[in-house]
User: Fold these one by one.
Assistant:
Number 1:
Amino acid sequence: MLAARTSAAPARSCFRSSTVPRAAFVCLPVNNVQRHLPQANNTAQLQHRSYATPTAEKVAKFKGQKQSDGKYMVSLIEGDGIGPEISQSVKDIYSAANVPIKWESVDVTPMLKDGKTVIPDSAIESITRNYVALKGPLATPVGKGHVSLNLTLRRTFNLFANVRPCKSIAGYKTPYDNVDTLLIRENTEGEYSGIEHVVVDGVVQSIKLITKDASERVLRYAFQYAQDVGRLKVRAVHKATIMKMSDGLFLSLANKMAKEYPNIEFDAELLDNTCLKVVTDPSPYNDKVLVMPNLYGDILSDMCAGLIGGLGLTPSANIGDECSIFEAVHGSAPDIAGKGLANPTALLLSSIMMLQHMGLTEHADRIQGAIFKTLAEGKTITGDLGGKAKTHEYAAAVIKNL
Ligand SMILES: NC(=O)C1=CN([C@@H]2O[C@H](COP(=O)(O)OP(=O)(O)OC[C@H]3O[C@@H](n4cnc5c(N)ncnc54)[C@H](O)[C@@H]3O)[C@@H](O)[C@H]2O)C=CC1
Ligand SMILES: O=C(O)CCC(=O)C(=O)O
Ligand SMILES: [Mg+2]
């Protein structure tokens, strides 16, 4: 569908919307592809989205956390770059919506302990105490410098499954209507294990670690998630043709796990083929839960975000047995930081996943209703979506729509 032209300058791309006649190709500068697509008619509904079906046990755990003023304490990591701006939007909207949450601000400035990068004890204590955290993006230096704090947090709290839904936004036109992908990424190992060394000068080795335990844990979570939300098809995404042992182990465990869930249809697909198919026609993925090793999920989730309007829109949940941390798919966006240009929707929707996880569904419904209404009206939206609104103006519009 998306065919880049090599001869035109500036670079242009031509595509055909699935909703317009065959001949109706449109050619636009590539960086405007998402924005100006009057031919495509996004028919996504303003329906509420449910990402979590918390067990009675889990809800009781959070109820037990309720303080004497009826509020729940939640750890908040504002993060780097655009983090403080988008966190402010969440705080403002939650305050206007009277959500019974008190934010406990957490500092995760890295420290060195026995030669290892660690996060301060006070941060660990806060998240352990509150069971949940909302987290803005944390920047990782390229090449040298400290290890990723995002990964450190995931490992510290054993947040083994990363749930990344990506669904079209009503009223926001993109090349494909009604995208609805749901990806579950192994979150603690794989290419992200950070085990690297120099073999000899000019030769480095990076270990992709795949274990039975971590694979089984995320696979079980994916099958159970599929069962709970009634999305009864699970597909493992892998590259076991090349990484016969590591991805091979992941895949064989997936096949085994499928036998424990006979009502769930299971199949597998090679990663490169998944990439091609998702960008060619995402609709066959609308009824599936995709489960995969760490790096594949990282890359595929950014790619899926591109199908619905970009990283300003996609949330995620890092789930563990005890604690869970909710964050946007995107990073610290240094190119727009401090300018009031960031779209806080991704972090807001991550906070909706958090409220649902905590069983606070009425508040989740009310806020997501206001978010989707504001986006559908299209009057007060941020620059990434083709609007002119500043981050705080968009937040004010959401508050008005509460
Ligand atoms: N979970 C996390 O905290 C993550 C952290 N990072 C870190 O973020 C830093 C920057 O990474 P990049 O590759 O630039 O990726 P990025 O996700 O920060 O930005 C990619 C592009 O998307 C845009 N964008 C992202 N979020 C947006 C928002 N809310 N509203 C509007 N536009 C938005 C940015 O302006 C940029 O053009 C790096 O240090 C990286 O390590 C990256 C991904 C995830
Ligand atoms: O930790 C980082 O720097 C990047 C993490 C990332 O891209 C992600 O979790 O999606
Ligand atoms: Mg990423």
Number 2:
Amino acid sequence: MDHITRAYLTEILSGQISCVETISDPVSLSLITKEISGFDFPVLKSRQDWIADFGENHCLTNHPTEYHFHCYIPLENNGRILGTFELHNHNHELNAEGLTFCCNIADFIAGLLAVMEERNVYEPNLATPIKSEIINEPKISAFADEKIKQLEQEIEKLRVQLAEYLIFKPEESSEILTHPEIVGSSPEMQEVYRLLNLISSTETTVLILGETGTGKELIAKAVHDGSTRSQKTMVKVNCAAIPPNLIESELFGHEKGSFTGATERRIGKFEQAHKGTIFLDEIGELPIDLQVRLLRVLQEKEIERIGGKTTIPTDVRIISATNRNLLEEVEAGRFRRDLFYRLNVFPLSLPPLRNRKSDIAVLATFFLEKFARKSKRTLEGFSKKALSQMMAYSWPGNVRELEHLIERQVVMAQGPVIRNVEIPGSPEKSLSTLAPVKTIFENERDHIFAVLALCNGKISGQNGAAKLLGVPATTLNSKIKRLGLSKKHIF
Ligand SMILES: Nc1ncnc2c1ncn2[C@@H]1O[C@H](COP(=O)(O)OP(=O)(O)OP(=O)(O)O)[C@@H](O)[C@H]1O
């Protein structure tokens, strides 16, 4: 290899600097090539990792300050690796969220380098290093066309978000965050509110992830309401609910007579959402051919009605949501990787209710008040028993399931306090209906019996039952006698 392109962000005390450089000097190159150009997937390394591998001389950030955490992501465009994106920072080891940020930035930088290469603005085989502060101070804008400017703007937005993310130290914030429309103050929801605050004033494309009923639509609404587009509408499209043959016309509209049954011109959801937000729910269900069209709309920022002859510019913020693991869908070839990166600019994961049990009581009370008001009933709250029933349940349908359950309880309530909640699929168990319970004695006997059978009756030694059970062979022998077990039980 005769050169390597490195785009890097480093955290310094006064803020962030960023630059792209091409290194072709043989001495630095051999060291760098050896170390980072071999990474063909994202790699996180700490300073200690580098020292363990290469000694104290590992530092390759071209900056005198030593950094503690390093992240390297290949800059890949259409299967070609154009260089490496690096982040060097002091404070945090990157978590999954930070890594996604970086992957998104890398994706845009790779796109930018590819366009620059195409336009001859950037020449990867240049013998001398170019040092253009493409991110902070776009010197190349003299040559730059619209596409380059757009990509630069996207990168800049992400860079600012990443900077805010890196500066934030959760342990230093003691303020309990809340939201007027969203109930819950568990640590998991604190993180959701923090991310909501982070994106509220931006135009970022958001991907909301979470199981069914975790509140994805509610959060999408909160993102829209908190944005500068809140005076315009948020148009919702449920990609799973529309028959595949109608979804294109639903999203982009059609001209009269463009297909059988198109008796009128139809304005699609993208046009309806102009200057506002479009919420693409269940995006994982979007057919693959429409994924291509959606990607084009995201890139070109214009749509074409079916049967239309002109393109219509659209200014729409995209929020999408899914309860699928989209990366798995990408790996399985059911979801386009380029679209995934476009949508996943800012991922926001909602925790399932079973992982934030401290919110159950407050959510249940919120719904109790809501439905009591609606049905004009006076209800005061839940008994301890009712609350512990709700706490013990795993809520596969999450907040929506809780909401429906409380609605039913309000209808059926006999007095001002709900004393018993009917958890679905678990009729109240009385002792007489429970399966016979084993005594501790029986449990121990059966367990020892099973392990002895596994070891073919061998008690001591390397493959003996005593070793597996973590007791000395003499103890196991006396237990076997006491429990009345013998070899005949085993073979
Ligand atoms: N934190 C919350 N506070 C108050 N209400 C909530 C909260 N989370 C969810 N809900 C309510 O629960 C119901 C389900 O929420 P929502 O429709 O947003 O879930 P979803 O994740 O979009 O579901 P699906 O994946 O099935 O589309 C709604 O009535 C919503 O208002």
